[in-house]
Amino acid sequence: MPVIEAHLLEGYSEDERQRLARALTDAACLVIPANPDAVTVMIREVPKANYMRGGKTRTPAPARSDPCDQIRAYLAAMEARNIGTARSMLAEGFVMNFPAAPGLRTLEELIAWAKPRYRFVKKAYDNFEAFQQGQATIIYATGTLYGEWPDGTAFENIRFIDRFEMSDGKITRQDVWNDMAETKANLARAHN
Amino acid sequence: MPVIEAHLLEGYSEDERQRLARALTDAACLVIPANPDAVTVMIREVPKANYMRGGKTRTPAPARSDPCDQIRAYLAAMEARNIGTARSMLAEGFVMNFPAAPGLRTLEELIAWAKPRYRFVKKAYDNFEAFQQGQATIIYATGTLYGEWPDGTAFENIRFIDRFEMSDGKITRQDVWNDMAETKANLARAHN
Amino acid sequence: MPVIEAHLLEGYSEDERQRLARALTDAACLVIPANPDAVTVMIREVPKANYMRGGKTRTPAPARSDPCDQIRAYLAAMEARNIGTARSMLAEGFVMNFPAAPGLRTLEELIAWAKPRYRFVKKAYDNFEAFQQGQATIIYATGTLYGEWPDGTAFENIRFIDRFEMSDGKITRQDVWNDMAETKANLARAHN
Amino acid sequence: MPVIEAHLLEGYSEDERQRLARALTDAACLVIPANPDAVTVMIREVPKANYMRGGKTRTPAPARSDPCDQIRAYLAAMEARNIGTARSMLAEGFVMNFPAAPGLRTLEELIAWAKPRYRFVKKAYDNFEAFQQGQATIIYATGTLYGEWPDGTAFENIRFIDRFEMSDGKITRQDVWNDMAETKANLARAHN
Amino acid sequence: MPVIEAHLLEGYSEDERQRLARALTDAACLVIPANPDAVTVMIREVPKANYMRGGKTRTPAPARSDPCDQIRAYLAAMEARNIGTARSMLAEGFVMNFPAAPGLRTLEELIAWAKPRYRFVKKAYDNFEAFQQGQATIIYATGTLYGEWPDGTAFENIRFIDRFEMSDGKITRQDVWNDMAETKANLARAHN
Amino acid sequence: MPVIEAHLLEGYSEDERQRLARALTDAACLVIPANPDAVTVMIREVPKANYMRGGKTRTPAPARSDPCDQIRAYLAAMEARNIGTARSMLAEGFVMNFPAAPGLRTLEELIAWAKPRYRFVKKAYDNFEAFQQGQATIIYATGTLYGEWPDGTAFENIRFIDRFEMSDGKITRQDVWNDMAETKANLARAHN
């Protein structure tokens, strides 16, 4: 217990059905601390011809892509400065909040803001997490930053966390926290 | 579509059943971008006497408390320096990672580490988020910090994000990011 | 076979559930010529707190009144010339088609049209039938007319059939056929 | 709500399953005034080998033909005076009730009765309706008649309604109403 | 797996429902060697008003008494020579087959047959087993006999097995095997 | 009623599913004396990819062989003195109880015990019955023995019943009752 049965229009791939089954398992365990072996999820695929809502047959909406994969692709495009690709993944009204730089609205603003702060920065990922809240998908990426300071010295192992919101398959918001200022303060102390 | 039916041992409160129904709705929407009005969740309560697993009746495990409420209580206890209360919520092997202070293992260590950094700090919460990943519950708290620097001047509106992992109802890990160093660097720049 | 399970929000009366069960049985038998003893209908009532559509609990819509009862009441009001009561049961845009009197739109028109045709007419009902077609409920009433011709002689046993359409609980259309003209022609032949 | 699941032996065509799904949708809406988009019907086909009643596997009974199609074919055969074809569709004990001609039992009687009334008559159909009541299928056909009076003058646009009862795939009863006498009376008045 | 759901008319006692759940669990395990903890049985009770077969509500048939209890009561009545009570539990056409005494039809015949064989015999039960086969319930009782030979010497520990068939709550057949003859032969050998 | 639905991982043969359906039918009838035509069993096969327990897909355990077939094979091997084959079907700790020979542990012991009792014995089977009790499968074989006494004279029509217990597909116990001693005693009486 619980035993969960999800009726689904036929047409989703095995991978999509398993993502659904895992998400339903996690949802059950969020509330019911059952022995994991006792949480059963069964997906029942209903052929299109055998399903009517309001007296009409329906076409299954294509499954969402894995949101972690989408964010991974966005961050890769940003790292590679493929601004066009990255921009195509953003929703109208997209907003970014970086440490001490709230309310950035365009990737160009972000790039201008970042310019004096480091020569380049890259992300080593530890973890991606995604979950749904009503209409929004929330994705967290955590890991460490590495790159070069403006003076060309290298840095690495600076913790970061990015929080994304997606809606209808587009990114609507990004919030970023990291230990860069902490690291710079430590460097400054070490120099003095 | 989808139509989700969850069979549950009788004994969960209305609030617990609704938390489950919402979590299952979110789980479905994470994968299937259905018109939200078309995502149906029905919970069927099975009386204890009408359910057997392995030929034996079973007792429903008490539902988990809302993990957001648990973290809220933990953070409140820490703010009030009710160390005993806070400690009772930690699992064996608990570890904390703060900016530039990885791997703290006891609340006493944390308090010692914090001492030279500020007279006090409090949290204004914007948002709590919780989801399950296998055996772990992940909780995020975001908001802003306010308090006093060691010299008694006030600060506020410093963004933070806390990530918690819980297992079996106990907190196993806390990761903290915030803009404190960024703020201090800005203050220092302003002073010079 | 078939075995039909209908999940319903809790709150419908026993009579309403049995009307539903009978309607579902009839629907199955319209297509599948199963041995009637093999057509099983089970209604499962889902408590309001155990049901969510789109992540929200829902309130069960009050069941429709039995449409045969509604038409019976309408016809009784008309017979008793309770025009106000009868009119309150009509939808905006209501239209009546009587033999040789198509397109009447108000009860007053109908009464005026009927005046020279008989002193009064009443209905002895044989049968009421109702079924649904998409958004419309169709009701048939059959039986015989009795009353008095303008000259005061009585008539009876004149077959009639009334077809009604209802939508959202209001009558949108009435079509009437009967053997009155046939009867009068026969009377005329008999007199000559 | 409601969510209706019909378990059916495998073997029915897509058209038959959709007729069933529509009939079940209509049945639900006859009683529950749900938002039509909220009425879900799912048909689950059970392979013959996976179904037992009384410990025995069962063979699915062939679906009934669409009763509207059957009546259409009967009326076409009658119009074309294919008496043999029409008669093959009648049940033992079949009875017809025409205006002023109740209780006709054979097609020959009907033809004899009609002979002095018109040279020929044909039907222009507006609508066919079918529904089930216990063991009987009820079918209504409405539309207008056109043809020639005995004197060869044409008539048209005379409203009619035919009610049929079928049982076990055969027609057991036909009741006919129309405005023919009304029309003739009007013609007579116009001539005088 | 398997997950078994049994829909039952409301009205069976908790004990009856648990006997059913256990019997269904055993039935599943007879064919599927699942981890017992993975065999789930859920009984869903359908209120009488929510169930129709063939368009008619049905009254739940009273559950069968536990057949082991019935056989226990029959054997107790026989041991106590309450012939009336015992006889009331027998179906028309009842037949008994004892070692070397096939085809006994009445309890009186049995008593007469037993008379020269022992002064009295009683049963110490090890085990009762019951299962269904189509319309018949099969019950096995095993254990040991004790009592006195005609000469008054005592015997004990003689293995027996009784097989019963019941139908419609009555015993239709009893077959008995035991080691009495073996024991007597051993006694005789010992005496010689 | 009852209506039983068994959800099963896809992969069982038609014969295995029908054995399951029959066993579930019998289980229901053991408790509920329903009109057999009203006991419905539906097996729903869930594709492996559509089923998760504890968040993991599972592989269906191969069905048990028909236990009656297994016992038949064991008894045939014993009759043919294919000791190796027979022994391979026995579980560790196997024990046999024969009339006046309790607690035999090896087939060799059994053969030695039988040697002075008859030249050979064979079984004519009337009936095999199998049912499950928790982890154990119980099988009964009944019929008659025929063969030759040590002196070469033939015997036949001696009733026997064998009870077997199996666990995990191996025979753990055999209990045997028969009328051999009774028959020999009768023969002796006849000779004297």
From TrEMBL, chains A, B, C, D, E, F:
Keyword Isomerase included in the entry's annotation: yes
Gene Ontology molecular function, alphabetical: isomerase activity
Annotated 4-oxalocrotonate tautomerase-like domain residues: 2-56
Matching InterPro entries: 4-OT-like_dom, NTF2-like_dom_sf, SnoaL-like, Tautomerase/MIF_sf
Protein's recorded name: Uncharacterized protein, 4-oxalocrotonate tautomerase-like protein
Key word Isomerase present: yes
Keywords tagged on the record: Isomerase
Annotated SnoaL-like domain residues: 71-173
